[in-house]
Amino acid sequence: MSHLKRWMFLAHRWLGVALCVLFALWFVSGVVMMYVGYPKLTPAERLMHLPPLRGAAVALEPDQALAAAGLQGPLRDLRLAVASGGRAVYLATPQPSKAAPPGDARPRGAPVVIDARTGAVLTAVDAPRALASAAAYAQGPAHAVHEGTLQEDAFTHSRALDMHRPLHRVRLGDAHDTVLYISGTTGEVVRDATRTERQWNYAGAWLHWLYPLRGGLVDRYWADIVNALSLLGIAAVVTGGVIGILRWRFAGTYRSGRRTPFPSAWARWHHVAGLLFMVVTLAWIFSGLMSMNPWRIFDSGAPALRTNAMHGGPLQLPHAGAPVAALLQAASTDTRELRWTRTAGHTLVQALPASGPPTVLDAHTALPHAWQPGELEAAAARLVDAPLQRVETLRAYDAYYYTRDAHTMTGGTDKPLPVLRLVFGDPHASWVHLDPHTGAVLGRLDRHRRTSRWLFGLLHSWDWLPLLQRRPLWDVLLVALSVGGTVISLSGVVLGWRRVRRKLGWRTPAAPQAPMR
Length: 517
Description:
Elements: H1 2-33, H2 43-49, H3 62-69, E1 75-84, E2 87-94, E3 112-115, H4 127-138, E4 145-150, E5 167-171, E6 179-183, E7 189-193, H5 195-201, H6 205-208, H7 222-247, H8 265-291, H9 307-311, H10 324-330, E8 335-343, E9 346-353, E10 359-362, H11 375-380, E11 388-394, E12 419-424, E13 431-434, E14 441-445, H12 447-461, H13 465-468, H14 473-503
Antiparallel strand pairs: 1-2, 1-8, 2-3, 4-5, 5-6, 6-7, 8-9, 9-10, 11-12, 12-13, 13-14
Helix pairs in contact: 1-7, 1-14, 7-8, 8-12, 8-14
Protein name: PepSY-associated transmembrane protein
InterPro entries: PepSY-ass_TM (IPR005625)
Organism: Diaphorobacter nitroreducens
């Protein structure tokens, strides 16, 4: 038993020496991330910065533009917006199974960009086109400067941007010193980062997610390194917790009169703070590991949703569809984008304004579309090859469907209310959330993902509605617990430094003595 205790002491001591600085960085950067997130362009921001469609130069109807581009097959998505180079363009994404047009070197899944005035397919994105996109984004006086192209930098570590690389970096020259990243594939603005976001991120997400390891020689091992450090961190906390409990005098005191045996003030702080905050520290490190989906433990292997079965096939534009001018006339004057969709057997157009819900129009008549009772539910029942057990209507957020602030890791996506929750009887216990206004599938949660929600979302971000709805209680609690974790870490830094200094034989120089008189 004594042999085991000795090895546990040694393991905790040297794991602490190796990891205490990292722990301190994790706690401090976590507090920063509560208020400044990693840069991203949310759907709401994107729409707000698109110029209005009314008055834009749109000479071609969508079927004409597709014909000019040589796209005859079914589509996965079709949009019209002033989104590339300051001009109105159609962005058409063919079904993946269809061959790309001759000479098309687009990344897989990237849309074909078609000039809505001439029908020309816009391919290479050069600096002038990137600057024009930036000027349209600014919607006002700007002194944009093109800073070159890049594959990846500190603020673009995101797989969602892969189809857009290389990225054009443009400094907007506005009051916020905004840097825009322009897609090298479509010419769209795909990310923005203000000076505040960039500066704070070096003390926030960039440190918290160990992004200094990204983009270099060890990039391919980044996930493995994070997983390994998390496992070692868990071992350090567990061994420290056991030692802390064993060394604490719950009955009586040591000869010093204290319940902790350590004479050093730093060691006492480390002991007491470790006992008080070891559970939350362990929960944060463990949930951080869970955020990485280590060894794909949250991948259930469930088959993809059968969206074609729900929608009655891929998107095919009507031969005599409503003109763009009629669609814009029927929608808000502030419409920024038209999106053609195939939804539950109907070809529809969503007219998206700068803010607020879209107007849903019939693609044939430009009249507002209304769903018949039970129509959406009947179509959505075909999404999963299993019985639809029940349909719930959520009129308020709950533990599994909720919203977070836009800057947070899981925030920034559209979470409308009310929403339909379809519960299926498949082996994966799938839930599907459906927007009853547009008919859009908002997401799927199977048993594995619901487990991830608790092991990561709750334990790491404390995204529990009773807390989130009672801010600043959430803020006070998380900051206080983070301070406790920082005390553990910083005291560990001091103790570790002293231990290393002794092992290396370093001595503090003695103070010079005064000469004898």
